[in-house]
Amino acid sequence: MVVQIAFLTVVAAFFLFSTIARMIEAPHPYAHWPDWQRELVILRFDALMVGVFAAWISVNYPRAWYGSRWFVGALGVVILFVMYASLWRITGHHLEWNADSYFARTFRFNLVSLGFAMLLPVASSGQLVRETFASTAVRRIALWSYALYLVHFPFFQVVAKYTPARWTSSFVQSMAVTSLQFAAVIGISALLYRYYESRCTHLRECVAPAVAQLLRRT
User: Fold this and answer.
1) Rounded Cα–Cα distance for residues 196 and 150 (Å)
2) Of the chain's two ends, which shows fewer C-beta atoms within 10 Å, N or C?
3) Strands, E, within 62-164: which ranges?
């Protein structure tokens, strides 16, 4: 019981920290939605905590998690549709980009995370009958996803800077170069996971077995 309370307290603390920090930062001119609130990691811990809390519910209250999954999933779709629709507004019969508002800089992040989290009960209720190429690919990409997140943008920037213009002078060439970039990024991410990330995560079994056990439960 004490562990559960401590766990939920930490989750709530991280969630509130980022949410309140965005509320404080949002009125400032420099806190643009595209390149400040959206990209500054310290302001986005709440998104991670929504997922952590969803995992906690699935473990501790499985009946509620699966019992109303279709209603919760449908509500999640509605929330996501409204949030992404709110990125635009109609002004004088014209559709304009409306992302950089106070709401966009603060609570839209919470609601988008909530919308995706509400899709998880439906997603987790599926049962894999047999292993397929698609299921293996999805599982591998999920394992490599954090490395992909870190690697893709700097890699694409380097390639864009040093790729000769003649290599992308046609649609076919551009698609070929882009496909090679994706393949290279996936390969680099797989290597990072295999030889660095997985070895770090395996250390918790020895260094902090209690934490490792808690993570497996959640």
Assistant:
1) 13
2) N
3) 88-91, 94-97
Amino acid at position 42, single letter:
I
Task: Write the pLDDT tens digit of every residue in 14-51.
Answer: 999 999 999 999 999 888 877 788 888 899 999 999 99
E strands, the chain, where? 88-91, 94-97
Of 113, 143, 121, 104, give the one whose Cα is nearest residue 14: 113
The set of long-range contacts for 196-205, using a CB threshold of 8 Å and a minimum separation of 24, is 197/146, 197/147
Please state, in angstroms and rounded to a whole number, the distance separating the CA atoms of residues 199 and 209.
15
Q: How far is CA 172 from CA 33, 73, 146, 165, 166, in A?
A: 34, 39, 30, 14, 12
Check: CB of residue 40 under 8 Å from CB of residue 58: no
On the 0-12 / 13-18 / 19+ scale of CB atoms within 10 A, 123 is: exposed
